Amino acid sequence: MPPVFMILVFAFGIAAGLFLALAGIGVIEEGLGLILTVFAAALTVVAIVGALVILFRRPILQRVFGVAETQIDALAMPLSRLAERAMAADPPGATAAARDFAQLALARYAWIATRRWIVASLTALIAAMAALAGTALLYKQNLLLGVQTALLEEQNRKIEAQTTLLSQQVELAEAARNAEIAVAITALAAEVGAAANASAAALPQDPLPDAAENGTYARLVPHIDPVTGLDRGLSMRIVALSRSARPYRFLRQTLDAGDSSQSLRVALSRRRADLPQTWDRLAAANGWAEEGPAALIDRPASPERGALLDMLVGGGLRNLEILNHFGLDLSFAWLPGARLFMVTAQTGMLAYADLSGASLVGCDFGGADLSNARLAGATVSRTDFSDVPAGRLRPPFAADLAPLESILTGVSFAGAVVTDSRFGGAMMLAADFDGAILSRVDFSGASLGAATFRRAVILDADFAGADLKSADFDGAVVFGADALERIARAAAPGRFRADRFRLEPLAPSDVMTIPLVARTLTQDGLAAATGGRAPFRVLRTGAFED
């Protein structure tokens, strides 16, 4: 094949490749029939032209060059005549011989070139069709692979959905097994109720009206002396029942009757299409998320242990130390919205308990293990989570056990309202107070390394001697232009770096726009709680590991 023709074919290949790359497979697929038709037509034309040239070779050569045969040996005769005429000094004869030689040479070259052209054209067209067919098959293969990939992805999604359902089935089977424990809790509730009635009957009939704990209140609100009011066998059955209940994952409850924000969301949902801006504003303020399909909760929990705690407290057993001494296990207890008033649970095992949205008033959880417990959105008032010294230790624990350390590692008070409560000396690594309101809260001596107070409203908190290494106050609202300096001076030496933050002034009205503040405080109440100090927002400016 001549070099020029090879270059042309190569250029055609480059042009076709660029066309394929730019046009895409869709164009090729749509015009594949036309392209194949053009190639077949060109191949047919070349084949017909070649056949005609071969069949009518002699007439064509005779008409064009005046000769019909162009064999190699035929070229010798005009060459010999040319030599003879030249030697005989016959110019006309030499010229005629040269003309005959040129005609034969041109006819010979024309035939060879035509034959090469026919062969090269047929070969090129056949190669091009083969290449195009291969390219088309490759593209078709890629299309089929794309379809197969999509089907595999769909299969994987269905397998994941099936795995999720199987996981739910396994967890719900555990829930069914634990349902038997609910029957035992009901039986224990009857015995606890009988103990409460016996305690109420032992009270004087005419108590003094101004007594600190008058008999009328005690009869209306049962109270059991944990030492004398509980049978030892009953105590041991309660402890054994708490240990037999195992945590598991169950379907997430989508509605909570005690959540006013959720109640508003459900009530307003039917007008969402009519009031889209109002819906978006309230959704942003209250953290509403789009509801998905029913799914398991994110970590194991035990509704049975939660029900056991609710039964004990509701039945009048507000001092749980005697049961804690015997090994009462309330870890993983699931009791959102619990109402715990004047409950003491020193040394209690409440790790991973979920008391989200609970109301805790006048409680004592000193020395308890509340690591990774959830009290998000809770209302906590006059409750003690601090370490327990000997003078505060409740029976049956001996004074030589003091001090008892409170463990609140990873505890979450996100969005909670905490007032007049103590966390002194507690282990609170990575505790979560994001979005909470803190008023007259004592963190003195607490280990708050890596804790977060993001977007919290800190009305009044005592960080005296606290470890605040890498604690995050980004977005928190504090009061007083020297708030960061006061925290730095109060914290343990070198355990808080104020230079990682800066203060941005806020107007008091800006603080009242925070939904939790607006639901909790009035403008006058805010001023009274902060002593009239100006509000500021804390903004983090440096990395924690610098």
Description:
- The protein is an alpha/beta fold.
- Among the domains are: 3-162, no CATH class; 408-546, no CATH class.
- The protein has helices at 3-23, 25-30, 32-55, 57-65, 76-87, 91-201, 215-220, 232-244, 260-268, 276-286, 303-314, 321-326, 483-490, 508-512, 515-520, 523-530, and strands spanning 339-341, 359-361, 379-381, 417-422, 437-442, 457-462, 477-479, 501-505, 535-540.
- The model is unreliable at 205-219 (pLDDT under 50).
Task: Provide a compact summary of the structure.
The protein has 546 residues and is an alpha/beta fold. Helices cover 49% and strands 8% of the residues.
How is the secondary structure organized here?
Blueprint: H1 3-23, H2 25-30, H3 32-55, H4 57-65, H5 76-87, H6 91-201, H7 215-220, H8 232-244, H9 260-268, H10 276-286, H11 303-314, H12 321-326, E1 339-341, E2 359-361, E3 379-381, E4 417-422, E5 437-442, E6 457-462, E7 477-479, H13 483-490, E8 501-505, H14 508-512, H15 515-520, H16 523-530, E9 535-540
Parallel strand pairs: 1-2, 2-3, 3-4, 4-5, 5-6
Antiparallel strand pairs: 7-9, 8-9
Helix pairs in contact: 3-6, 4-6, 5-6, 6-8, 6-11
Q: How far apart, in Å, are the first and last alpha carbons? A: 72 Å
How many runs of DSSP E, i.e. beta strands? 9
Low-confidence regions: 205-219
Pattern of helices and strands: HHHHHHHHHHHHEEEEEEEHEHHHE
Task: Report the radius of gyration as a whole number of Å.
Answer: 47 Å
Structural class: alpha/beta
Overall mean pLDDT: 80
Strand content: 5-15%
Helix content, binned percent: 40-55%
Largest sheet: 6 strands, parallel
Side by side, the strands of the main sheet go: 1-2-3-4-5-6
Shape: elongated
> Helix count?
16
